[in-house]
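Internal tracking record. Fields below are filled automatically when a chain is submitted to the structure queue. Please do not edit lines marked as system-generated. If the sequence contains nonstandard residues, flag them in the REMARKS field before resubmitting.
Queue: standard
Priority: normal
Entity type: single polypeptide chain
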Amino acid sequence: MHRRRAGPHKSVFSHSQTPRLSYGHSSRMNVAKSGYPVFSANSTTACTELAKKITERLGVELGKSVVYQESNRETRVDVKESVRGQDIFIIQTIPRDVNTAIMELLVMAYALKTSCAKNIIGVIPYFPYSKQCKMRKRGSIVCKLLASMLAKAGLTHIITMDLHQKEIQGFFSFPVDNLRASPFLLQYIQEEIPDYRNAIIVAKSPSAAKRAQSYAERLRLGLAVMHGEAQCSESDMADGRHSPPSVRNTTGHPGLELPLMMAKEKPPITVVGDVGGRIAIIVDDIIDDVEDFVAAAEILKERGAYKIYIMATHGLLSADAPRLIEESAIDEVVVTNTVPHEVQKLQCPKIKTVDVSMILAEAIRRIHNGESMAYLFRNITVDD
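SYSTEM-GENERATED OUTPUT FOLLOWS
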């Protein structure tokens, strides 16, 4: 009995081992060939450029899908291949039409969810509404609402880059990998700015001082901080909180008397630090409305800076930003390709682009293979 049991057991074991040895190489080739199901949720050609660069680095093709707008502006998504049981990556870059891009991402994620995809990972280099992450007066925290919508649509993981506030990750009920663009921007400074050793890193406001300090320490450069604001800022506007006029109500409770609140008085823009005869490099995470950057450049020019660079991760460059940059004292604006800005570059030659598709592709590869993401955050500080 023992010999009869051993014989079949031995033959079954050898039979199961044979396909592994003979087909192991071809299975690895299949994984390398079609193991990264990557889709683009954009309906415009300009926004798919980053997705194409990422898939080229991964050595795969974009998943077959069609995203378009109906005649009544409704978003329609058709997935043209099976995604059942797979880990799917959706790459979504955010153009000027932010709300359309959000709907494309939501509809794409929901289409993949209802098609029985196992996990849906959103690759959103610039996370929209990230500036609306704090309560302001009678407003709302829209970033929290968007996080809930993405989870409801079916996303299970997000890869993004340089969130406006790192605490935004707490709005999500699933993992968020917040990558950093600082290594690419630091490399640009070292390789593309002549005599960068004579530069000084500038924080446009005290709130950006930590980021600027991180850049300055790694480049072994000095640090300057700009303080103060131009007049007629948003917080100075009347918001109705003093209406009706503050007349003492004699019928109220006599014990409810609040102390008199002292109004803030904002000083004019000043520079803490010596920028005379130096290259001034202003660092920030987002450059959208450039009036503040133009005003800062004029102040730095008056203080003796002979060249002014602006380094930012996300170049939204809305409205007439290209014209204002071209006419300003700014010598160069360097942004990454997390947001499409080819039209702005045609209008303003001062705008330069740094490609970050390499780190996004590596993040996709590591998540797909179940590898640690710690390598992508080496030498990265919390203040980046």
